[in-house]
Each structure stands twice: as C-alpha cells, then as structure tokens.
Amino acid sequence: MNREDLRRRIGVDGRLLSVETWDQIKHTERFIGGAAVVFVLTFSWTISSAPVISDFVQGYHRLALSMMAWMLLGLSFNFLLGQTGLLSFGHAMFWGGSGYAAALFALHVSGSPLLILVVGVLFSVVLAFLSALVLLRLHGVYFAIVTLAIAQTLYRLVREPLEPITKGINGLRPSFDPLLGVFALGEYRGPLEFLGSGMYVFLGIFFVATIVLITRVRKSPYGLIFKAVQENETRARFVGLDVWRYKYAAFMLSAFIGGLAGTLFFMVTGPGLMSGSVVPERMLWTNSGNLVVMVVLGGLGTLAGPLVGVFLFQWMGSVLNGLGWVIPGLSILGPIGQYWQMLVALAFTAVVWTYPEGVWGMITDATAALREPQTIPEKLKRKTPGLRSDAEQGDDR
C-alpha cells in the first residue's frame, strides 16, 4: 500500500474514521450482521451480570431468552407492516400455532431440537399459505380483522374442542433431547458462562440468521418493490408489477419468521432449559395487540426499532412490574410497579404524538443533531405539534 492509498483510506484530515465513512459502513450488510453477532454475544451478560447496567436493569438469563424470541416476532410483524403496509392483528396465530405444532411433535414423535424447530416453522408456513388465499383478497381494516378472527378461532380450538390433544388451559410441557444427540442445551459453566446456556446459543444463531436474511431482502430489488407496493399500490400495479404476488411473498416470509419465533419461544419457556411450554393464551388477541405496541413504540419500518420496542415493553412487564418502590408522601397509591401498563400507554401516546419514528427514531435524530447542533431548534419545532404554525400543520394534514 503506497502513501496515497493510505491517505485515502484514513481520510485526508488524518482521522481513522470520518463521519461520512461511518454513514456508509453502518448500512452495509456485513456491518449489520456483525452487529447482530456482537448483540447476541453480549445481550444476556449485559442485562444479567454486567457491572452497573445489570444493577439498574435487574435482568436475568431467562428474560434474555424470552426477549430475543419476542424480538424475532417483532421483526416478523415489522417486515409485514413496515415493508408492505399490511397490518396484522393476528400474528399470535403464528406465535402460538407453531408452538403447539412443535410441542405435539416433541411429545409424540421426536425430541430433537432441530426437527422440533422445522415442524413448528412448517406449521406456520402452511397456515400462512392457507390463510393468505382469503386474507390477501382483503384490504386495510378488513385484512386486520380477519387475521384477528383466525387467531381467535385457533385459540378457542386448542382451549376447548381439542382439549384431549392440547390439554386445554394446562398446556403442554415436553422435554428435548440434546442437540444432534451430543450437545446439551443446559447452563454453561467456565469460560462460556457469559453466554448463559446452550439454548441461548441455539436461539442466537437463528436470531443472527434472521437479521441477515431481512437485511438481504430489504436491500434487494424485492425489498424496493415491497416499499413501492406500500407507498402506492395502485401505481405499482399500473407499472406492471404483480402486487398480489409480492404481498403474498412478504406474508409468507413474515409467517416463516413468526413461526421461527413462536417455536423458539416455546423452547425457552419450559420449566427447564431442556423442556418447552405452550398454553392457549399464546394465541390470545392481547399478544397481537402488545406486538403492535412494541413495534410502533420502538420504531416501525426500521431494523433496530422492533428490538428496542420489545426490550422496553418486556422489561417494563417483567422487571418494572415487580418494583416495590413507593412515591414518598403518596403511599396510598401503592408500589409504582403496578402502574407499568399505564406507563407503557403514556410512552406509546407520547411517541405516536411527537415521534412517529419511535424511540429508535429519537435516538437517530439525537445523534444526527449532535453532529449538527445548529439544526436542533428547527427539528424540535418540526417534531412538536404545539410549536408549529397553523400553515405547517395544515400542510401535514
């Protein structure tokens, strides 16, 4: 490497990494895949054992497992709504349906984790294939309502008519065999203790693969067509695109990831790390509604937004919910933790009102503003409805 090449790589001003270079690197597929690997390697340790952070977050390893499965479901929902504009209020059918398929397979056929995962995902794909024949003929709120109806129908089926098979409200709790008959998925000790367990590594591999897959699709011609369909379906049809086919492809891919998430969630919620658990409430409408809140809160249409939204929602529901701290002088109100759902509602309302891009949008805007501090007043004015002029608000409407 000659001197001129070196100067070009490190920048004329001698800095190792300029802002412009960083802007180019952070959107590459290699960087996003590498960031996903680093996230998996550090997430469980950070919330459960890292100095200072774990004291504040008060997380634990099983919470990290649960959060990562929910994050996969958030990515699945976000891909469908954020890329093609299809709002599903019934994503719980993939979440719970794949769990039941996997549990029944583990009980009656094989305890192999890989085969269990394949069966759970296949069930979700078949369910999507059949339901898409009806759903993709509908638009807007009708699509959302029918997805909700399908999920509620499955919920009722596994709770009562199929009770002899599904054990009704008690659910199913089968055990697994070691991975490939050799690798146990239980707790790690020694040098790998920071990863927590073999089940975490198993889940993490599929988490990274999903991030890479979604990034590849978003940056491919397919991803651009999905965005075109979302922004103006009629115009996309006029230029010769088969809109139904692309919506069908997006729905199937979303169901595939949803089934992967549901099966992995079943595998990480059992009484032990080598057993799973699934109950009818997994398919209840509240899970679909909570999923919408998580994704919108974090940032719809982005890759990191659903991860942020899931983390905040799950942390509030699991850790803040148990917080016994009482506001001084207001002991009559009881522990602050019991109001966690109200705090989520306030945060959700604030985000929708002022920052439709979600918490992740706030973070990216804040970092951009730090690079150009002179633009902060104008951005605040644009983001806060009360500070905008009537003419500006009229333009938005």
From TrEMBL:
Localization of this protein: Cell membrane
Ranges for region Disordered: 377-397
Keyword Cell membrane attributed: yes
Transmembrane feature ranges: 31-53, 59-80, 92-109, 115-136, 141-158, 194-214, 248-268, 288-313, 325-353
Recorded GO CC terms: plasma membrane
Bilayer topology term: Multi-pass membrane protein
Keywords annotated in UniProt: Cell membrane, Membrane, Transmembrane, Transmembrane helix
Matching InterPro entries: ABC_transp_permease (IPR001851), LivM-like (IPR043428)
Principal place of residence: membrane
Name under which the protein is recorded: Branched-chain amino acid ABC transporter permease
Organism: Halobellus rubicundus
Lineage: Archaea, Methanobacteriati, Methanobacteriota, Stenosarchaea group, Halobacteria
